[in-house]
Amino acid sequence: MLVPTDYQAFEETFGANNYKPLDVVLARGEGVWLWDVEGKRYLDCLAGYSAVSQGHCHPRIKQALIAQAGRLTLTSRAFRNDQLGPFFEELCALTRSHKVLPMNSGAEAVETAIKTVRKWGYEVKGVPADQAEVIVCADNFHGRTIAIVGFSTDPANRQGFGPFAPGFKVVPFGDAAAFEAAITPNTVAFLVEPIQGEAGVIIPPAGYLRRVRDICSKRGVVLILDEIQTGLGRTGKLLAEEHEGIEADLTLIGKALSGGFYPVSAVLSNSEVMGVLKPGEHGSTFGGNPLACAVARMALKVLVDEGMIKNSATLGAYFLDQLRRLGGFKEARGRGLMIGLDLDPAWGGGRRFCELMLERGVLCKETHGHTIRLSPPLVVTKTEIDWVLEQIAAVLRS
Ligand SMILES: *Cc1c(COP(=O)(O)O)cnc(C)c1O
């Protein structure tokens, strides 16, 4: 039988070195809980970077996956399948969208949106050929493809990977005036996260998205909200845009769209922008396959049926309030169950904090050195949050 150090040695010997995981080898999951190969239990406060919002191995999503896997898994979009239409219809009804373009990873949804707004710029807005500009924010995270890392401002994401695609301009996050000043006649879109996730759960000033929405409408710029992390209940609303009562022109979702079972992403759009794509101009072998659609349909259904969005709002507010009462760190901020905890720089670093939490049976992950992201599955209970708070208190005291 393999022991934990064997799994680690295999990964390190044969795997590319592009991750530095905590030393825990997980073998099973159920709801908010995970078990390692030796049977020790952990409460998952990362939830696959928000992909497992519905909880690990949710029984109804699992059933949908198994049933569909026994019927039909992939047709390609050369033919129609009986899951795609219902998936589109249900997703549009839920999100009040007109059109859906299904992809697999989040990065593919971002790439799809960029292609779409460039084409819209040339065909509808009248931008001269190859002059389209997309404005993005400093400290963004939109994925790992060449185009996307090319407009990242994090040296670790981009250094050594050039040359990059032109046509992107970076402005500070949370500054609507800076965004407006950067617009030119060739600006086709503004791509922004409602709350910056990987940057450390950075919440923009109140009213920012509403101002950005107004500026985009006035200046003929497509507003693309990357809700791959903030979407589908994570912040206590179905989409984070609802906190400011706005609607994006394009909305990107992924991660929790499949409840962690399978990579499924989508671009949601109004008809005008998506209307520029014609047959043969964009696609994906796996995008919109019947297995993905069946899984996503059930992942959305349980999110709504089982009250997970409301739970995220209520317990997220409770978690944040209790953290602030606890003290012992620099700052806690969040919306719903998307919470960032800034440790004091003197504390010894986020990695150390996560290692001590691991010993106490809680899985979490640091981002950018001193910030801990707390984003448990949306099915977490108050008792479980109280228990996590006890472990945080004990680690902060140590
Ligand atoms: C995770 C994430 C992505 C990329 O998704 P992948 O599935 O890893 O390609 C894009 N944008 C945001 C905001 C994300 O959090």
How would you characterize the overall build of this protein?
The chain has 398 residues and is α/β, with parallel strands linked by helices. The protein has two domains: 4-54 and 307-397, Aspartate Aminotransferase, domain 1; 59-305, Aspartate Aminotransferase, domain 2, CATH 3.40.640. The chain is 38% helix and 17% strand. The chain has 14 helices and 15 strands. A seven-stranded mixed β-sheet has the order 4-10-9-8-7-5-6, sandwiched between helices. Strands 1-2-3-13 form a four-stranded mixed β-sheet. The chain has a four-stranded antiparallel β-sheet with strand order 11-12-15-14, covered by helices on one side. Helix 3 packs antiparallel against helix 11 (290-305), helix 4 packs parallel to helix 11 (290-305) and helix 12 packs parallel to helix 14 (382-397). The longest helix is centred in the first third of the chain and has 20 residues, at 106-125. It is globular and about 60 Å long. It starts with a helix and ends with a helix.
